[in-house]
Amino acid sequence: MPLIISLWEADPSQSAIIGNKAAGLAELHRAGLRVPKGFCVTTDVHAFWRTQDALSDDIHTQLRNAYAALTPPLAVRSSSPVEDRADASFAGQYQTILGVRTEEEFFAALESCWRSAASDAARAYRKDQTGDQQADAGVEMAVLVQELVPATAAGVLFTLHPVTERVDQLVVNANYGLGESVVSGRAEPDTFVLEKKTGKAVEKRLGAKRTICRLADRGVEEVPLAAECQNSFSLNEHQLAALADAARALEAHFDMPMDVEWAFVDSTLHMLQARPVTTGAEAYYTDLLDDWARARGLEFDPEAVWARGSPLSGLPLSPLYYSEMAAFFSDMFPRVAALHGAQPGKRKSFRYFRGFSYSDVTFTSAADPSGTIKPAGFFSPSWRANIRLGLRYPATLAFWCNIDAYYRKWNTEWYPGIETNRPDYATADAAVIQRFIEYIEAQRRERSIFAALGVAYASDYLALLAHLLERWAPGLPDDTLGVLTSGVSDSLTHDENVEMTALADAAGALLSVRQAILAQRYHALEESADGRAFLARLDAFRERRPHRGCPDRDTLHPRWGDSRDILLNQVHAMLSLGQKADPQAAHVRTAARRRVREEEVLRAVRRGPFGFLRAAIMRRVMRQAQRYWIQRDNQRHSFDRYFFELRQAYRALGARLAARGALAVEDHVFFAAKTELYDCLAGQLPDMRLRARAQWRHDWWHRMKALEPPPFLKGNQPYQPGEASGAAGAGDLGGVGGAPGIAKGPVRLIRSMSELGSVEQGDILVTHAIDPAWTPVFGIIGGVISEEGGILSHATVLGREYGLPVVIGASGAASKLKNGDWVEVNGTGGTVRRVTEESLPAVDAARG
C-alpha cells in the first residue's frame, strides 16, 4: 500500500486511505475540472506517527521528495475518511494551513493536521453525528497537500439555494484574493443568486468586503481592501457563467447537490474542494421525480401556495406512484378542460414534499369537485356546458344518458384485453413488461376521460337534484339530498362489505378457525379440515378481488392478491372488534329510509300546476343522480384493478433490475421515478445511479412517513395562509358535509390501515383520507372526519351506507385534534365542534 499518492493519479474509491476531501478532488480531476497539483499523505502515515510519535527515515524521505515536486506556496489540509460525506460534512472541524513555503513548515503543518483529528471540537462533532461512544479515541487522518492557487477572486458555490432549497438556482459567495476570507467568515462577501440553467443573475448583493486574504512572505495575511474594490463586485458575468457551467457539470457527475470552494486566477477557474450539500439531498432527489413536468414544459411557480393532498392521494405516496400519477393527472385534466373549450395552463399543479403530494391552491377541476353541492338548475353554467359538450362530442352525450351501459364494457372489452396482453412474468423480459405497462396506461388514460366526466356529471346531477328540491319541495329535512343517495343498489363496495362480513362470520362460527385467526397463527389453519375449507373460501374471495385490501391506490402497497395474510388480518380485525353492524341490514334500513323519503319528495312535487310532469322529471333526475353516485364509487374497483396490474408489472421490472444490480432489491422499484426506470433500461441512466437514488429515497421515505407534513407550503417552506373558513357555518373546524347525521364521541386518529385495531366502539375516526378497505371499523365507529376528499369521495359513500355522519375537507384536523378529544360531528352542516364529556348524555359520557 503506497504511503503517498499523487492527487491526479488517485482513485476516488481510495477514500478510506486518502480521505473524502482528497477523493472528492480526485473525482473532480477525473470529471475534467481543473484541480491544483498535489499529493495525498495516506492514513497509514498518520497511524505510524500516532503510535510511534515520530516518522521513520523512509517515510520522512518519501515526504521530502513529494514536497520537492511541488512549487510553493502550498496548502496543507486534513482529509479525513469521515468528513465531507453526504450525511455529515465535518466542515471546519479539522485543520487547513495555507501559504506553506519551506520544508520545515510543511512537516509542522502535517503534524497540525494530524493533531486536529483528536481535537475536542472534532471529537464532539463526530460523537454527535455518529453516536459513537468511542468518538474521543480519534480517527485515522489523511493529509492533502496542493500548490496554492494565487487567486484574484475566490469563494464558495452551492449548486442549489441553501436557504430556499430551490434546485433551479445556485448561490455564490465571493471576495477578491484567497477564499479564506469567505470560508472563515471574516469578510462579508458578495452574494450572487444565479439561474442554474442559464447562469443569469437573478439577485446580486454587494458585500462590504472590508478585508481580503492574500499570500505573504510567511503564510497568508489579512489586509484591508481598497475602497474602490469594496464598491465593485468581485466577479464579472463571464466568471459567473463559468461557475454556473461548473455547477451543472458537478451535479451531472456526482448526482447530488455540491458545496464547492473555488478560485479564479483572472479568468481561469480552479476547484479547491467539493463535498455534498448535506441538507440539500431531499430537495435534489425529490426534484428528479419531476422530469414529467419538465417534459411537458410545466413551470414551477416559486410564489405558489401549495395545499397538502391532491387527486393523487392524501396519504404518503411512493416516488414511483407520484411520478406516474402526477403526469397522468397533468395530462387528463387539461384534456377534460379542452373538451369544454378551456385553455390548459402551463403551470405545474402538483408537487411532492416529504412523501406527500401537494396541489397548487389555484388548481381546480370539474373532474374532481370537492365542497358542498350547490343547487344548479338546467340553465346553470355547468348544465349549459354539458349540453354544448354533448352536441360537440356525441359520445359524451351517450355516456351522459346511460352511464351503466358504458361501465358494462369492463367485463366485455377492457378486462379481457388486460388478460390477453398480460405477460408471463416468469419468462418475460423487461421490454415485454414495459409494453404491458404502457398498454395498461393507454387503456386507463382513455377510460379516465369518461371517468372524469362521470365524476363531473355526478356532481351536476346532485346539484340539479338539490335545485329541484329547493324549488319544488321546500320544507323537507336538510338531510334529504343525502338520504336520497343512500342505500342505492348495485354498489360494488356494498357487495364487498357483505362478502367480507360473511367471511368473518364463517371464521367466527368455527372454533379452531376463530382461535387461530385471533391468535394470528395463520399457519395453523392448514392443519385442520375446517381451517383448510375456510382458506379455500378465503382464496376464492381473493381471486375475485385481488386488487383490494390496501390503504391507497399506490402501487407500493401489497393487496389481497399479493398476500393471503392481508385479508386474514382484516378478518382478524373484524373478529377482534366485533361486527356490531351487519352491512346487509344497514343497507336494507337505509334503502327503506330512502324509498320513504323519495315518496315524500314526489308527493310534495305533485302539488300544484303540472305536478305529474314535475314528478316525472324529479323521478328521472333522482334516478340519474343515484346511478352516477353509485358508478362514481364503482369505478374505483376497476381502476384499482389497473393499479394491481401495474404493481405486478413493476415488481417484475424491479426483479430484472435487481438481478443486474441496478436496484438493491426488487421493491426499490417503487422508489424510483418511472422516467428513471425507463432511462436505465434504455441505457441512458447508469445502473449504479438508479440504485443509489432508489436506495436514498427508500431510506428517506420511511423516515418521512412517520412525520406530520405541513398543511401548506410556499416554496419549500411551511406556510400559513390563514384559517380556512368552513363551507357550512360555525364550528371549531370547518369542512364539508359528506354524509348526513350528527354524532358525538372521542377522537381516534388513524393514519394507516395498520392502526385500525386501536379503534373502539363510538370513536370518531379522524384521518387524512378514507379508503373502502377500512370497512371493518365502520360497524363500530360513530362518525368520520377526513382532511381530504370531496362530496363524491369514498368516505361519503361508506358513511351513507352505514348511516354515519361524515365531514370531509376538514383541513388540519389530524394536527388540531388529539386522541381522546370529544367532538360533535355534524355531517349535514359540515362542522366539527369540540364538546366536553360533562355536556354529553350519561350513556355517552360513560364511554370514557
Set out the fold topology.
Blueprint: E1 4-6, H1 15-30, E2 38-41, H2 43-52, H3 57-68, E3 74-79, E4 96-100, H4 103-116, H5 120-130, E5 142-147, E6 153-158, E7 169-176, H6 180-183, E8 190-195, E9 201-205, E10 211-215, E11 220-224, H7 227-230, H8 237-254, E12 258-265, E13 268-276, H9 281-287, H10 291-295, E14 305-308, H11 319-339, E15 350-353, E16 356-360, H12 381-392, H13 394-401, H14 403-407, H15 409-421, H16 430-472, H17 480-484, H18 492-509, H19 511-518, H20 529-544, H21 564-577, H22 583-606, H23 611-659, H24 674-681, H25 687-704, E17 712-714, E18 717-718, E19 733-734, E20 736-739, E21 742-749, E22 764-767, E23 783-786, H26 794-802, E24 806-808, H27 813-816, E25 822-826, E26 831-834, H28 842-845
Parallel strand pairs: 21-22, 22-23, 23-24
Antiparallel strand pairs: 1-2, 2-5, 3-4, 3-5, 6-7, 6-12, 7-8, 8-9, 10-11, 12-13, 14-16, 14-17, 15-16, 17-18, 19-26, 20-24, 21-25, 25-26
Helix pairs in contact: 11-16, 12-13, 16-23, 18-20, 18-21, 22-23
Walk me through what this model shows:
This protein has six domains: 144 residues, Dna Ligase, domain 1, CATH 3.30.1490.20; 127 residues, 2-Layer Sandwich (D-amino Acid Aminotransferase, Chain A, domain 1), CATH 3.30.470.20; 77 residues, no CATH class; 217 residues, no CATH class; 96 residues, no CATH class; 113 residues, Phosphohistidine domain (Glucose Oxidase, domain 1, 3-Layer(bba) Sandwich), CATH 3.50.30. 45% of the residues lie in helices and 15% in strands. The strands form five sheets. An eight-stranded mixed β-sheet has the order 19-26-25-21-22-23-24-20. The chain has a six-stranded antiparallel β-sheet with strand order 9-8-7-6-12-13.
